[in-house]
Amino acid sequence: MYQRPNPTIVRAAIIGRIQSYTGKRCYDKVPANTPVPFYALPTVLQKPDDSKTMARDTFEILIYAFAEGDSSIAIDTMTTGLYEAFSTELEIPDYEVTLQQFEGVNQIMDQEDGSTMAVVSLRITIFYGYKMKI
């Protein structure tokens, strides 16, 4: 019997990848008064994506990038760091990532404190077993 991947292990793998590739902190829950720049990963949506023979789940992840000031260079540097971090396949122990699609920047917003926030989408499909008839 196979076990569906838990969103917690996917979130941990993504946070680890972002921190190791960009050198910036990434939070699942942002502490109060956190200094910018940083990344936040508040939501990981999990949907079944089975085929006729394979058990798969697709995870839709929104990554928030917070940069200092209102310069487009600062936020572009943060989003480019994400592109580079996910240019190689994510590794999740005991599972196989079959699709990793970086969907780009959805939105850029100015914050009340003078910083800039970009919302970036990432989609990952994880294979976790074959379906068999006995």
Structural class: alpha+beta
Reading the helices and strands in chain order gives: HEEEHEE
The unreliable regions are: none
Q: Compute the number of helices.
A: 2
Record the strand order, biggest sheet.
1-2-3-5-4
Strand residue content: 35-45%
Rounded mean pLDDT score = 93
Total number of strands: 5
Tell the overall outline: elongated
Instruction: Give the termini distance in whole angstroms.
Output: 13 Å
- Compute the CA-based radius of gyration: 16 Å
**Main sheet overview:** 5 strands, mixed
Proportion of residues in helical segments: 10-25%
Summarize the structure.
The protein contains 2 helices and 5 strands; from the N terminus they run αβββαββ. Helix content is 22%, strand content 43%.
Descriptive notes:
The protein has about 130 residues and is α+β, with helices and mostly antiparallel strands. The longest helix has 16 residues, at about 5-20. It has a five-stranded mixed β-sheet. The protein contains two helices and five strands, in the order H-E-E-E-H-E-E. It has helices spanning about 5-20, 70-85, and strands spanning about 25, 40-50, 55-65, 95-110, 115-130. Helix 1 (about 5-20) packs across helix 2 (about 70-85).
